[in-house]
Specification:
By secondary structure, this protein is an alpha+beta fold. It has 2 domains: 227 residues, 3-Layer(aba) Sandwich (Rossmann fold); 136 residues, no CATH class. The chain contains 10 helices and 26 strands. Bound molecules: zinc ion (ZN).
């Protein structure tokens, strides 16, 4: 179905009918898991849940699925049917996550992915460049199948050197570029350096978070929007995507039942989903670890689906302090526009009076960009040279806990211990400003030890 036709159908689908279909799909999924999946059969039994009597999510409130459980379980324990393929991802935790699928499921998800193109206003004249990596993950193959179902011309080389894509732009005239933020940033940077410009409908990105500054740079150069999607291996597709309003991810609620677990006063909590249209490896109330909230109200674009906010961070990056549950992403907003602070900064939280209760978010060593060796040579372009745009990307961080040896910094304060968990974060590196909270909740911002 053409993207525009699909969008028309969604906009005119009765809301009540959609709810009914979703409830039916949920019941079907739970029953299937209860009958076929050893993992869920055991889980339901332990929780005294009769899957045949489950009617909605409220009946499953005691049932959650964690990534750790899935990784620990034998793969076939999660399966309800025969898989045709598997995709995997190391994710942000560094541990491999696997999703088994059937070809039919991949094709179904890809057909749904055409909605993404519809939301960005793609038309018959558009041409797609798919630059998501193939390798072991979902991105490359998923993008290629979306292209196949879209009816649009497309070229899907995967994670190639962006310079090669720039060289082919005049002949292939692609107008929609799909790739991770870092690839799109490099693509843009090379185009800038070579003075290449071309009419673009838009860019579609996923995976890492892209800062608004980087998005603005790319959009300003190409005079075309950058749309973000929220996707993961476990989802098998995207949970949601931005529309032209770019006010959050419109959730694909016909394929997933989405919940926000343990929301705080502002509605932020952990995103959990239940698959509604999967038969090989359904997941029930799967905890993503991502923190976000649902955006109230209906989007001006007219789509009936709820919107999810930008992912504020990982659940395991939250820090409990006098401000409540604080995520490091807070500081991106806090420091933006503060005179004297550039894009690189470091945050340290110290709570005097508590036994070595130092907890911090820092990036004590340079983090190489997530560039992978290309299948072919790069020529004169260094795979790790992405500045200046690439410096703006989301960077992994170290997030320290409450234990471990401390050391003294030049001003006599305790520095956080080395080590800790790696996580996903907003831009922050060493050498910039420092924020210190007092136990009373005061916040002091230091720039190279000079308070201001
Ligand atoms: Zn919208």
């Amino acid at each position: 179905m053409a993207p525009a036709s699909l969008l028309w159908l969604i906009r005119h689908f009765p809301a009540g009918a959609m709810d009914g279909l979703r409830r039916t799909a949920l019941r079907r999924t739970v029953r299937l898991a209860g009958r076929r999946s050893r993992f869920y059969r055991d889980k339901f039994a332990a929780l005294h849940i009769d899957p045949e009597r489950v009617r909605d999510l409220a009946d499953l409130r005691d049932c959650e699925t964690t990534p750790e459980e899935c990784r620990a379980a034998p793969p076939d324990a999660l399966l309800c049917g025969r898989p045709d393929l598997v995709v995997e991802s190391s994710g942000t935790s560094g541990r491999v996550t696997r999703l088994y699928l059937s070809h039919a499921e991949l094709e179904y998800y890809a057909r749904q992915g055409v909605i993404l193109l519809a939301m960005m206003g793609a038309g018959p004249a558009d041409r797609i460049l798919g630059a998501f990596e193939y390798a072991w993950g979902l991105g490359g193959i998923y993008t290629q199948r979306i292209g196949a179902h879209s009816g649009l011309f497309g070229v899907f080389p995967g994670l190639v050197d962006p310079a090669e894509a720039i060289e082919r732009l005049p002949e292939y005239r692609f107008t929609i570029v799909m790739g991770d933020p870092f690839w799109i940033a490099r693509f843009t940077e090379i185009a800038m350096a070579r003075g290449v410009r071309a009419p673009m409908t838009g860019f579609v990105s996923a995976a890492e978070r892209m800062t608004e500054r980087l998005r603005g740079l790319i959009e300003d150069y190409w005079k075309a929007p950058v749309y973000m999607t929220y996707a993961s291996t476990e989802l098998g597709a995207s949970l949601g995507a931005e529309c032209t309003e770019k006010t959050g991810y419109h959730l694909h609620e016909y394929d997933y039942a989405v919940e926000i677990l343990n929301p705080d006063a502002d509605g932020f909590g952990e995103v959990a989903f239940t698959t509604l249209t999967r038969s090989v490896m359904p997941l029930i109330r799967y905890r993503t670890g991502d923190v976000a909230r649902l955006i109230p109200g209906r989007c001006p674009c007219g789509l009936p689906f709820r919107r999810l906010s930008a992912i504020r961070g990982r659940n395991d990056e939250l820090l409990a302090c006098v401000w409540g549950n604080v995520h490091p992403g807070l500081f991106e907003d806090l420091l933006r526009g503060v005179e004297g602070i550039g894009d690189e900064w470091q945050v340290a939280l110290r709570q005097p009076g508590l036994r070595r209760c130092s907890s911090s978010v820092s990036n004590p060593r340079p983090v190489p960009p997530p560039w992978r060796p290309p299948r072919r040579g790069f020529g004169p372009i260094s795979p790790n040279s992405i500045p200046p745009l690439g410096q703006d990307r989301a960077a992994p961080v170290r997030h320290q806990g409450v234990s471990g040896a401390s050391r003294k910094s030049p001003d006599g304060a305790e520095d956080p211990p080395a080590g800790g968990r790696a996580g996903r974060m907003t831009p922050m590196t060493s050498g910039g400003a420092e924020i210190r909270w007092t136990s009373g909740g005061e916040c002091h911002i230091f720039d190279r030890l000079n308070a201001f």
